[in-house]
Amino acid sequence: MSWLFLILGVVAEALSHVALKATDGFNKPLPLAMVALGHLFAFIFLGLAMKGIPVGIAHAVWAGLAIMTVTLLSTFIYQQHLDTSVWVGMAFVAVGLGLIALSQGHSH
């Protein structure tokens, strides 16, 4: 269940970061509400995830997946073009997250 909470926290965090651009300098209330609620839910879910996942693992996975998700969402929603080196960097993040996840079963 902890991993589900972690994924929900990542989704909430990523959506709030993507909505931040849409606030137009905090001038649009609906995206601003999405930012506030997204961050609130992100931290609630992260806290719940940390009941069963070590803090360092939870935070590393949360941050890495959030970076990757925000990058992907901003590419599709805002049509932001990213060069090959960014995608190579994202691949390194994904590999690092995979290594962390694989080691999770051996660290308690």
> How helical, in percent, are the residues?
over 70%
Summed over residues and divided by their number, the pLDDT gives a mean of: 90
**Main sheet record:** none
How many separate helices? 4
Radius of gyration: 15 Å
What best-fitting shape do the alpha-carbon axes yield? flat
Approximate strand percentage: under 5%
Secondary-structure content class: mainly alpha
Q: Secondary-structure element order, as H and E?
A: HHHH
What's the count of strands? 0
Our measurement of the CA-to-CA distance between the termini, rounded to an integer number of angstroms, reads: 16 Å
> Which residue ranges are poorly predicted, with pLDDT under 50 across at least 5 consecutive positions?
none
Subcellular location: Cell membrane
Protein name: DMT family transporter
Family: Belongs to the drug/metabolite transporter (DMT) superfamily. Small multidrug resistance (SMR) (TC 2.A.7.1) family.
Pfam families: Multi_Drug_Res (PF00893)
Polypeptide structure, described:
There is one protein chain. With 108 residues, the protein is mostly helical. Helices cover 80% and strands 0% of the residues. The chain is built from four helices and no strands. Helix 1 runs antiparallel to helix 2, helix 1 (2-22) packs across helix 3 and helix 3 runs antiparallel to helix 4. The chain crosses the membrane at residues 32-50, 57-78, 84-102. This is DMT family transporter. Pfam families: Multi_Drug_Res (PF00893).
